[in-house]
Write a structure and sequence with these properties.
By secondary structure, the protein is an alpha/beta fold. Helix content is 50%, strand content 20%. It comes from Planococcus maritimus.
Length: 186
């Protein structure tokens, strides 16, 4: 079954989505759409992103949104997020994320998140990435928020794609969300 993000969010908040993107322009446009939908819905939007893309986004948001709207968008440096302990360590990433969203949870404010997952190459053992995505899936269900995990398609070997399909209940295609028939609930 196909959905749009807004259609799906009307019926449930706990939405964990895989977005395998091709090209920087497509990526940036999807992310801007996600931010726009979140701001329009009154959600806080938490973006885990590298510095280069963050600077582009901040400049674009400054042209489009007023200060109040921009205050709904929060950036987290992806290098600090994924490598806070000096290596890719899923429990540390989960702890960092929990600390980051705690203010929204305590004040009962709706939020959504976008995480750009990138490496020079996927050198980490596959089980670590799968462990992280399983933790993310549990967090999405525990805190009832939407999360899009964006991976560059060209840098996804087949075994990583299979793992990600097992850990994400939804996959974002061009303009549609589809249920993953390979998803295995964590």
């Amino acid at each position: 079954m196909k959905y749009t993000m807004n259609e799906l969010l009307e019926t449930q908040r706990n939405v964990h989505v895989l977005y395998a993107y091709s090209g920087a322009e497509n990526y940036l446009q999807k992310l801007l759409n996600y931010i726009e939908e979140g701001v329009a819905a009154g959600d806080h939007v938490l973006i885990v992103e590298n510095e280069r893309v963050t600077k582009k986004l901040e400049a674009l948001l400054a042209k489009t949104y007023n200060e109040t709207q921009r205050s709904q968008v929060h950036f987290v440096n992806s290098l600090q997020f994924y490598w806070s302990t000096g290596s890719y360590h899923p429990p540390a990433i989960h702890q960092y994320f929990t600390k980051t969203v705690e203010p929204f949870i305590k004040s009962n404010q709706a939020f959504r998140s976008w995480a750009h997952v990138e490496w020079e190459s996927v050198k980490e053992p596959l089980f670590l990435i799968e462990d992280f995505e399983k933790m993310a899936d549990r967090a999405v269900n525990e805190y009832a928020f939407p999360l899009i995990c964006a991976y560059e398609k060209q840098r996804m070997p087949h075994h990583l794609t299979e793992s990600l399909m097992r850990t994400h209940p939804y996959v974002l295609l061009e303009d549609d969300l589809v249920a993953s028939n390979q998803y295995q609930s964590s």
